[in-house]
Fold this sequence. Notes:
Largest interface: A-B, 32 and 35 residues
Distance between the termini of chain B: 38 Å
Oligomer: heterodimer
Shape of chain A: globular
Helix content of chain B: 40-55%
Mean pLDDT of chain B: 83
Shape of chain B: flat
Number of helices of chain B: 3
Number of strands of chain A: 7
Mean pLDDT of chain A: 89
Structural class of chain B: mainly alpha
Order of helices and strands of chain B: HHH
Low-confidence stretches of chain A: none
Number of helices of chain A: 4
Radius of gyration of chain A: 18 Å
Structural class of chain A: alpha+beta
Amino acid sequence: MRGVFGVENIPSDTQLRDVIDTHENTEVSSIFKDFLTRLQRAGQLEKYKFLNKFHLVALDGSDYFSSDKVHCDKCLTKKTSDGLHYHHQILQSTIIHPDMKRVIPLAPEFISNKDGMSKQDCEHNAGKRLIDRVKKDHPQLPLVWVCAGLYVGGDPDGK
Amino acid sequence: MAGRPTKHLRFGDLLHSMQSSFLKITDLRDPDKTVHSLSDIFTSAFALFFLQDPSLLAFQG
C-alpha cells in the first residue's frame, strides 16, 4: 500500500467505511471525466469508434442495497404485502465496443431521494441527469446511447 | 496503440491525478481527532477495488 499507492497511514475497514459514507459521490466524480479526457487525448478512444464516428454508451440501472428494515432518508421505497421495502439504486454508463474486451466506465448517477423532492427519484430521471452531465463534460464526443426499454417514449437525449 | 502506455496514461500519472482530486475534498472531521488523511482513506478504498480483493475486512491485513 505504501510502495505502490503511496498510502502513509493505512485505515481499518471500519474507519474507511465511516469516513467514505459521509461524502457525496460528486466529490470524486471529476476523476472519471479526467480519465476519459486523458484516454481521448492519447488516442485510445479511436479503438472504440462505432461506424467510424460514434461511441456506444451502454446505460443500465442496478440495485446495490436492499432491506425490509435498514433504511435511510435517501432510500427508495416500494410497498409490498409485508410493508415497506427499502432499496438503493445506481445508474451506470459505460463506453463499449463489440470488438473491445475492456469497457470505459463513466461517472455513475445515483437514483436516490433527496431533500425537498415531492416524488421518488427513478431510473428515467437519473438517466436524464446522467446524459446531460456526460454531454456537458464531453461536448465534442459523438455518443450513441444504448438504453433499456424504459427510455422508449421519451427522447433518449434527455430532452 | 499497442505497447507502452502513453505519458498521461501511466499508472503513476493516473494515481497522482486521482489523489489530487482527493486532496480537494473538504474534510469535515475534527482535526484533533483525525488520524488518517482523507487522501489515505480514499486511496485505500481505490486500492481495494483495483486489486479486486474479495473482502474489505481481510484486505486491511
